[in-house]
Description:
By secondary structure, this protein is α+β, with helices and mostly antiparallel strands. It folds into 3 domains: 1-121, eRF1 domain 1 (Translation, Eukaryotic Peptide Chain Release Factor Subunit 1, Chain A, 2-Layer Sandwich); 131-282, Nucleotidyltransferase, domain 5; 298-399, CATH 3.30.1330. 37% of the residues lie in helices and 22% in strands. It has 13 helices and 18 strands. It has helices spanning 6-14, 39-57, 62-76, 79-82, 123-126, 165-168, 176-180, 204-221, 239-245, 265-297, 304-312, 351-361, 389-397, and strands at residues 22-28, 88-94, 97-103, 110-114, 131-137, 142-148, 152-155, 193-196, 201-203, 230-234, 256-257, 300-301, 316-322, 328-332, 337-340, 349-350, 365-369, 380-384. The strands form 5 sheets. A 5-stranded mixed sheet has the order 7-6-5-10-11. The longest helix has 33 residues, at 265-297. The radius of gyration is 23 Å and the shape is globular.
Amino acid sequence: MDIFTGNDLRTLVEMRSGGCLSVSIYMPTHRAGSDRVRENPTRLKKLLRQAHEELVKAGIRHSEADMYLQPAQDLVDDGYFWMYAGDGLAIFVSRDHFRYYRLPASFPEMAVAGDRFHVKPLIPVLSFDGRFYVLSLSQKKVRLLLCTRHGFAEINLSGKVPASVAEALKYDDFDREQQFHAHERPTGDAKIIFGHGPGVKDTKQNLLRFFYLVDKGLRRDILQTESAPLILAGVEYLLPIYREANTYRNLLDKEAPGNPDKLGAAELHRIGLAIAEPYLEIRLHDALSRYNNSKGSGRFSNQIERLVKEAYYGKVSVLFVARDKEVWGSFEPSGEKVDIHDQRMPCDVDLLDLVTALVLANRGEVYSLPAEKMPDAVPASAALRYFNPIVEESYAGTA
C-alpha cells in the first residue's frame, strides 16, 4: 500500500498550478482476486477522458492535454500496478507533479481540474473519527494494516522493520545495555522461553529486542506524526512484551489475542474495527462537545466565507464538514477575497474541500458527517483556536 501522510497532504494543498491545471482523479477499485478486477483499468480510462475534457475546457490543446495525462494513462495497461489495488485509487497530476495512492477508502468516481488539487475525498483516510491501525505480531511475521470503517490496506513493511525474530538477531547496531535492559522487567513467568533459532534461544530478551526494532521502524517511517489508534493482534504471551518496547502513545489497551498468522487482512480489519469503534465514537463526541463549548465563548464559525479565511491562517481547531455537499467558488489569499457561486464556474474550487485541506494541513481535526447530522445544519462549522500551530512551532524551535 502507498502510505499517505499529513506531509503528503500539505504538499498537495500548497501546490497551485494556475489556469486549472491541477487534475485530481478518484475511483473505487477491486482488489486482485476479485471477479471484477478487470473493471479497474476500464474505469480509469473513462475518468482520464473526463479529465482530458476538463483540461480542454480550461484552454489546453488536445495534444498538450494528452501529454499532460500520459503518466496516469500509462497505469491503464500496467498489470503489475493493478495487482496491488486497495479499496480506492487517488491520482494527482500537475505540470510538475504526478503521484498516485492506493488507499483503504472506496472513493466515488471523480475527475476534477482546478488551480489546486481536490482533497476532500481523502478525509476518511486522515480524519480523527474513522482511521486506525492494526499491528499483527508473531515470531515469524509482522503486518500493519491502515484501516477505516469501510476499508483497509496492508502497508509494505519491507526495509522498515525486521520481518522476524531471526532477522532481528542479525542486527549489529543494537546497544543491549542502554536500549534493551532498561525496558526489561522480571515477570516471574518461566514459560517465556520459546522456539529455537539457529543456535540461539528465542528468550524474552530476544523478543524484546525484536519488538524494540519493530517499534523503532514504525515510529521512524510510518507513525512519526500519527495520532490514530493502534491495536495489537497476536498470541497472548507476545503482547505484553511488545508493550514494554512500545513508544507510540496511542496504543489501545484492548487487544486481539490469538494467532494472527491464520487470519487474512479482511478478518483482522473486522476484529480491529470492533475494538476501535467505541474509541472513534468517543473522539467524535468529544469534538462535538468542544465545538458546543466554543460557541459559548464566541470562538466558532459556521459561515463559509469566514471559515476559508480562518482556515488559511491556521486558526481552525476542529472542523465538521458535510461529506455530501459542495460549495463552489474562489478564494484569493492576497486580498482575502472569497466568492461563492450558485453554480460551478470554470476554475472554481469546492470551498468545503479547500477548508478541509487547509485545516488538515495545519494539523487541525476534521470530521466528515452526512449533511443531516451536521452541527447547526450548515455545510461546515468549526471551533477556532487562538494561534497558528505552524507559527507556534517555529517560535518553540528558536527558544
